[in-house]
Specification:
The protein is of the alpha+beta class. It has 15 helices and 8 strands.
Length: 359
């Protein structure tokens, strides 16, 4: 918990800290981000995309999403498959599913309008306190601070709270400090400055203290602590798993067989070549669909890494003449050169490898 000395220091210096942060933001902040406007719809989409994903990665996906679905009304009328196709490659696909669920709630409970109160927004799927606060404040409908990873790290360092036990009380204390430091006259700019400082200056490792507008007020720095080593390690242990998949191609019509998948709640709602946890499962699937004599025995492998799992994909190829008798759904074939549904990144790797080998 914050000590009385730290609390006094905070109250004594918060005005100058706040002023310096805003002066820095005016000069060095990221002012040209495409979602920096007052559209609550655009802000909502950007904030969902930015959950667990860096700004530079999000920008092209956000730009394409808004170009294809520029209004909330059009999004409400869109199918989940349409949303997943635009989300394809961005990862953490539950976010896209939550967007679709939110549209149903907005349509049925809010007359097609995005809600503008904290109590209503916080109830929407995939939205927590920080996301709800950001949506409200950026759209001009509230004055709420945030506590994402960047802001949390900045405040912990500023007030030398890195070694605090991360329990509920400690988290509430960080929320208090974040809210108390918030500029009431420029709240939107201030929380953007919070995030920009954490992303560009007060970085997790190798922070650029010499560029920090509040370096002279940072207790951690004044105590000569090593800021790069001050924060508890959050590195997750990487799991390793094997998967098997079948690249099933109708070579006569240049089409690819894909089916909707969900593996360990990963890639839910996306389309993929048939995916299996074991080789025996793949062999059984081939047998059930009269394809056991058509699949190549050659296997090629590649690694595909997510944030917490590294997969070794084992790929078999099966080229067929679609006119032959096989037990596959007719609607699951897609033009290999123009796949317009949501597919995971590993599927792109499979397709690219196939094209490279068969050009």
């Amino acid at each position: 918990m914050i000590s009385k000395k730290q609390s006094n220091y905070h109250n004594k210096n918060k005005n100058i800290i706040r002023k310096n942060i805003l002066l820095w933001y005016d000069k060095f902040g990221r002012h040209n981000l495409p979602w920096k406007n007052k559209s609550i719809y655009h802000i909502w989409i950007s904030e969902i995309m930015l959950q667990q994903t860096q700004v530079n990665t999000v920008i092209p996906y956000y730009t394409r999403f808004i170009k294809e679905i520029p209004t909330l009304k059009k999004l409400i009328d869109s199918k989940l498959d349409d949303i997943m196709a635009l989300w394809s490659g961005l990862g953490f696909y539950r976010r896209a599913i939550n967007i679709h669920k939110t549209c149903l709630i907005i349509k049925n409970k809010h007359f097609g309008k995005f809600p503008t109160t904290y109590d209503e927004i916080i109830k929407l799927p995939g939205i927590g306190r920080t996301t709800a606060s950001a949506i409200l404040t950026f759209s001009g409908n509230g004055v709420n601070s945030i506590l994402d990873g960047n802001v949390k790290r900045f405040i912990q360092r500023l007030y030398s709270l890195m070694n605090e036990k991360e329990d509920k009380d400690a988290l509430n204390q960080l929320w208090f400090l974040s809210e108390n430091l918030l500029s009431k006259t420029r709240p939107s700019d201030f929380i953007q400055a919070y995030m920009d400082l954490g992303a560009l200056v007060c970085k997790k490792t190798n922070p650029k203290c010499e560029s920090c507008p509040v370096r002279n007020y940072c207790i951690t720095r004044m105590n000569n602590s090593n800021l790069s080593m001050s924060l508890k390690s959050t590195r997750k242990k990487i799991k390793h798993k094997k998967l098997w998949t079948l690249m099933l191609v109708d070579s006569t019509n240049n089409r690819l067989y894909l089916e909707k998948i969900s593996y360990m709640n990963l890639w839910k709602g996306l389309y993929s070549s048939p995916l299996f946890s074991e080789k025996l499962e793949l062999d059984k699937w081939l047998l059930e669909n009269n394809l056991e004599n058509l699949a190549s025995q050659d296997i090629w492998q590649f690694n595909h890494k997510l944030s917490h799992i590294e997969f070794l994909f084992n790929v078999r190829l099966c080229k067929i003449n679609y006119n032959k008798k096989i037990s596959l759904m007719k609607d699951n074939w897609y033009n290999l050169s123009d796949i317009n549904i949501g597919i995971p990144r590993y599927q792109n790797k499979i397709i690219k490898r196939y094209i490279d080998l068969h050009d």
